[in-house]
Amino acid sequence: MAEHVLLVGMMGAGKSTVARLVASRLGRPHIDTDAEVEREAGSTVSELFSTRGEAGFRAEESRVVTGVLAGAVPAVISVGGGAILDPAQRRALRAAGPVVWLRARPDTLARRVGRGRDRPLLVTAGDGTSPGPAVALARIDGERRGLYEEVASVVIDVDDLTPSAVADRVVRAVGLASREHSR
Questions:
Q1: Closest-CA residue to 38 (of 59, 22, 60)
Q2: Other beta carbons less than 10 A from residue 84's beta carbon
Q3: How far apart are CA 120 and CA 83, in angstroms?
Q4: What is the DSSP letter of 73?
Q5: By the 8 A CB rule, do 136 and 85 touch?
Q6: The domain at 5-181 falls in which architecture?
């Protein structure tokens, strides 16, 4: 199995954008697990949530993440924000290479995702009501923060940085994390 560079974090943290930049700088392919789920399922994430529910989406996500991590070519992988909910996925991520948590404050996330129309977890609560993206993001962030911390080799606070500056920090950090990870 190749040693990948994995970017985790909440929706709106910039995982996909930063991962593309990091992949370009490292001369590696970029893989976005949400895009892979959509490609393999032939449906958008929103459609999968609508037709299969969150549990159905998470099962598909888990299958895709497992396949991506098994890839033989070292890649920069932007991991869907909820993949860390599964303990087996957290173990697999840690084993696959340095994991970089792009950490952002909930207000930054809310500003970046806007109304969250293409984000199923922000559109409605379990009872069909919508608390609004900012409230939903703060709640989800509170639930996941410890899990991101658990898997992270490196933490980068992204709130006041451009994607390019974040990518620079990731490239520098994974050089160190890769050496530590191989020990």
A1: 60
A2: 23
A3: 15
A4: S
A5: no
A6: 3-Layer(aba) Sandwich (3.40)
Pairing of β 99-103 and β 5-8: parallel
Which helix (H) or strand (E) covers residue 115, if one does? none
What is the value of pTM for the model shown? 0.84
The pLDDT tens digits for 30-80 are 999 989 988 988 888 878 777 887 788 888 888 999 999 999 999 999 998
Classified as helix, coil or strand, 45 is helix
Gyration radius of the chain over CA positions: 16
Under a CB-based contact definition with an 8 Å cutoff, are residues 72 and 60 in contact? no
d(CA 14, CA 108): 11
Which tokens go with 123?
Answer: 């559109």
> Containing H/E element for 153?
none
Burial of 98 (0-12, 13-18, 19+ CB in 10 A): buried
| Lookup result for tokens 């490196």 | 154
Here the tokens at position 107 are 């207000």
The ranges assigned to domains in the chain are 5-181
- Tokens encoding 169: 């920090």
Q: For residue 50, what is the DSSP state? A: H
Residue 46's contacts (CB-CB under 8 Å, 6 or more residues apart) are: 118, 119, 120, 123
According to DSSP, residue 14 is labeled -
